[in-house]
Amino acid sequence: MPKPEELVSDWKRSVVDDVIADRTDDLARFALHAARILAYPDLDVNDALRKVDDMGRQAAESAKKKLATPRRPTQVIEHINSYLFETQKFRPNTDDYYNPLNSYLNVVMERKTGIPITLCILYMRVAGALDFRLQPINFPSHFLLKHVMEGGNGEIVIDPFNGGRIMDDYALKALLERSYPGRQISLTRAFVEKTTASQAVIRLLNNLKGSYYESQDMDKYELANEMVLAIDQYNPDAIRDRGIVLLKKGLSDEAASALNMYLEVDPEAEDADDVLDIIRQIRSGTYGKK
C-alpha cells in the first residue's frame, strides 16, 4: 500500500498544477482523482470520466432533437434538469448527508445521490457538453452554479441539489439565513462570485475531512489535509489541523511550530486564544497533564 507521502506526491502530479491554473472545467477529473487517492486506489479515472461525458453526449443529442435554436438559457437548464433528475434520477442525499461516499464522484455516479458540491460538479460537466457554460459558486454551506448571460447581461444561479432550481435573491437570502441564523448578514454580490478551482477542490476535501473526523479515521483525515496544503500551503485551517494531528501523534515540537504558523497566517482567527494556550502548554510541558 502506498505511503501517505507517496499519495500526496501522486496528488501533486495528477491534479495540483491544473487546479492552481484554475481549470474549473476539469473539476470532475479533480474530484475523481481525490476519490482514487483517498479511497479507491483501483479507480480508472479516465474510464469514470468517460461515463460522465457519455451522459453529457446523451443530454446534448437529446437537446438537438427537442430544443429549438436559438436556445434560451432557461430552456437549456430545464433540459439538463429533466435529463439528470428525471431520466437519470439523480437526487440529493438528505438522509445520510455527511457520509463520505457523497463526496466521491465515482460513487455519486453509481448511487445517483450526492451533496451540493458533487451534484454541481456533475451538472457542470454535463452542461459543458451542451456548450452551456457554468461557473462554480462557493456559497456558504451550499455549493451552487451560475450561468452568465451573453455580454454579461445578468446571470442565472442554479441549485443542482434541489433539482436544478433557479435561485432568485429571495431564495439566496433564505439560504444565507440558514447558514448564518440570527446574524442578519446582507446578501451581496460577493456571495455569488465565481469561485476558483482551488477553492472548489479544497471545499470538497474539507467535506471529506469532516466526515473522516466524525468517523475517527485520522489517517484519511491527515491525508486529505495534506492534499489541501499541496494546493494552498498557507491555508490557515489546514495548517492548524496539521498541528492538531501532529499533537495527537505526540510530536509536540512539530505541532507547536505548525500552530505558531497558523497564528502568523491568521492572527485574527476566532480560536487564536485557544491555540495560543495549547502552544503555551506544549512549551511548558504541561499539555495533556492534569
Put the structure in a nutshell.
By secondary structure, the chain is an alpha+beta fold.
Average pLDDT rating: 95
Measured distance between first and last alpha carbons? 39 Å
Which ranges are low-confidence, i.e. pLDDT below 50, for 5 or more consecutive residues?
A: none
Run of helices and strands: HHHHEHEHEEEEHHHHHH
- Residue share in β-strands: 5-15%
Structural class by sheet pairing and helices: alpha+beta
Q: Which quaternary structure do these chains form?
A: single chain
Strand line-up of the largest beta sheet: 3-4-5-6
Q: Could you estimate the helical fraction of the residues in percent?
A: 55-70%
The largest sheet is: 4 strands, antiparallel
Q: So what's the overall shape?
A: globular
Query: How many beta-strand segments?
Result: 6
Radius of gyration: 21 Å
Number of helices: 12
